Amino acid sequence: MSEVDFAPYVSSGAFRSRSVEEFVGCALDMGLDRIELGSAARWTPDVLRPVRDTAKRSIRYLVHNYFPPHERPFVLNLAAADPDVLRQSREHCRTALDLTSELGAPFYSVHAGFAFAARPEDLGADLTHAPRVPLEEAHRIFVESLRDLCAYAASRRLLVAIENNVIAPFNLVGGQNRLGLCATADELVRTYKDVGAENLGFLIDVGHLKVTANALKFDSYAFLESVAPWVVAFHLSDNDGLADQNLPFRDDAWFAPLLAGFPRATMILEAYNLDPPAIRDACATIERARRRASV
Question: Which residues on adjacent β-strands are paired with residue 205?
């Protein structure tokens, strides 16, 4: 019997460079063969060339959210009330699905929708004063977007994975979440049921989960139990519970023992701005957790 493969994917954000050519080169130098192409990549006219040169030969890729990047940046929001932003977001996701199919990846993951309008530089900061619509209106638009996106993905035999939103304590409005969809387990499951597509799943960001559970006072373990049937992948990083810091982690990370319950999920290192030894250490930590889970 061949040995089970426990190696994780590494987010493009884990590398020190935002250049696709440079972080692909770094991965090759390190002997890494799995990269998630994510939101931290910088646009260039030939941004996809290094990916296409190495796909299906040296490196396996996943496509996540705001990739490929755009010459004129915008906030990807599949729940946008602004028709231009919504159109641009839906078009981007179709392009990302085309790239996912081209690269032979099984799924495309995308952030849950926002009920606010913001610029790229606003993300991660206090958004309580940003223009916003009611969460119910954002949910309606988001469900419409996902129905369209899942149908497009199904025609290419792909899955779509929604990433749970992060709600930091400083972004609560009157002690409640008014900004982001799919922050709780109930919201994720409701979205899944309302979309009604079998090729829809969840990418659970454990960093987002830690911060949001602290802000909204719910239990992270109960969250994972509720969404378990639909989990496709995990983003793995740590933080102080107050903000999404994308920090590396060790064997005693709060989520490490939970990986045992998700043997088929794709694991993705999403700690940011690491040097090569730190990337190797974090990948080894994930592999050890998965090996313990398999015993």
Answer: 235
Residue among 161, 239, 167 at smallest CA distance from 204: 161
Q: What is the pLDDT along the chain (295 residues), one digit of tens a residue?
A: 345 568 999 999 999 999 999 999 999 999 999 999 997 899 999 999 999 999 978 999 999 999 999 999 999 999 999 999 999 999 999 999 999 999 999 999 999 999 999 888 888 788 999 999 999 999 999 999 999 999 999 999 999 999 999 999 999 999 999 999 999 999 999 999 999 999 999 999 999 999 999 999 999 999 999 999 999 999 999 999 999 999 999 999 999 999 888 999 999 999 999 999 999 999 999 999 888 755 5
Q: Which long-range contacts (CB under 8 A, 24 or more apart) does 173-176 make?
A: 173/128
Is the residue at 3 inside a domain? Answer: no
The C-alpha torsion from 205 through 210 and 213 to 217, rounded to 10°, is: 180
CA proximity to 207, closest of 150, 272, 160, 144: 272
Q: In this structure, what CATH number is given to the domain that contains residue 50?
A: 3.20.20.150
3-state secondary structure of 64: strand
The residue among 256, 263, 251, 159 whose CA lies nearest residue 206 is 256
| Interatomic CA distance for residues 152 and 295, integer angstroms | 39
Position 116, amino acid: F
Is 2 within the bounds of a domain?
A: no
CA distances from 218 to 23, 182, 224, 274 (A): 37, 14, 11, 31
Return all residues near 233 (Cβ < 8 A) that are at least 6 apart.
62, 107, 109, 161, 203, 204, 265, 266, 267, 268
List the one residue out of 62, 9, 15, 55 whose CA is nearest residue 32. 9
Say how far apart CA 96 and CA 100 lie, in whole Å.
6
In a domain, 258, yes or no: yes
